[in-house]
Amino acid sequence: MPKATTDRAARNASGMLDLIGLLYDAAAAPERWRNFLEAGAAYFGAFGANFIRYDPDLPDRSLGFLTGYGNDPAERQAGTIQRFVTLRHCDPRLGYSFDHPNKPFHCRQVVSSEALYASQSYQEVLRPNGVEYSLLVTFRETPEGFTGLAFMRGPSDNVFGQNDVDDMGRLVPHLRRALSIQDRLATMDQRTQASYRVLDALPTRIVILRSGGQVEYANTAALAIAGASDGLGVADGWLQLARERDQQIILEALRRVIVTGEHQALCIERPSGRLPLRGLLSLLPLSVGGGLPNLLAEQRIALYLSDPERALETPVELLQRMFGLTRAEARLVERLVAGCSLADAARQTGIQLSTARSQLKTVFRKTETDSQAGLVRAVLSSPAWIGGIVRGN
After folding, report:
1. pLDDT of res. 185
2. How confident is the model at residue 82 (pLDDT cuts 50, 70, 90)?
3. Domain count, the chain
4. CA 18 to chain centre
5. Burial class (CB in 10 A: 0-12, 13-18, 19+), 355
6. pLDDT at 330 over 70
7. What number of other Cβ atoms are within 10 A of residue 131's Cβ?
8. Can you tell me the distance from the alpha carbon of 247 to that of 241, in angstroms, rounded to the nearest whole number?
9. Residue 162, Cβ neighbours under 10 Å: how many?
10. Spatial separation of the C-alpha atoms in residues 382 and 97, rounded to whole Å
């Protein structure tokens, strides 16, 4: 491979790791979403980006961040976000995205220029704000609520390409994890150990640390890594790394996070020779009622751990991202791919056979197949499926 190509690939890999770090950092403190959006816009060569989490039933849970619009006053940016949400059902891009949740795409893959230009959303929101091309993904959490991430380019820019879509796909599982973490942290009372149990349901490996490295809490997924004593463990309530050099590095990183408030990335070597563990340290906010800083409380840091040898996504989550399936549709397909008949798949997923048949019709449309055999072939031959399954072994 030419050196220039290798260097470019290395820069892209480094930039993606930086983005993932900022994403988990935003999970700890929602105001940090802007940092992620600005870095993401630079990575994707976009002039702007937005992150919207809209839940009409829980307004306090809703978030909206917009970056890249220069010196536009906050009131105007807020109006742009609100108008975008209001016109969501008039936006042909979102129509496709809502029908294919979890699936990243760029706008010209699914909507013609003519259809986009004719839409009320383009005429009232996109064109006035200089948006011509967009790269986006949405998740549906309630019938009317949604979460969306988008990067935008202007009319003089190039259209997004498949490489951009693939890179957005690499962010999707991390984005799902970050949103889950954010939800659980939002409901936590950090003054009691019992409150941390809400994190146990997460597949993400999370350790809550005090400034000197004392482990206040580790969820089940993190304890599984610590229990292997391969690079990282917990001894007498303290975080212990296998190599003394790494132990000093993480203690220094903890101090930097406390002082600067900025996240720190870690690489933790494993004596077994397996690929190093990846870690991200992020400061947890201190607040009391009304969001005021609690100046007497001890700072705590979240350590997010990942094992590059293990798949980040479950087969169901991978199917959601590959084809834009709902969770129920993906669970059904996962059972069919495992060799179950439709009746067995319906029974194992707890639905009626008639419901399974209806879901399967929708799956055929989304996967552009017309039979169960064709569906299974489409899944098993997909590079994303092959890569995800191999990585999980």
Report:
1. 74
2. confident
3. 3
4. 14
5. middle
6. yes
7. 22
8. 5
9. 10
10. 21
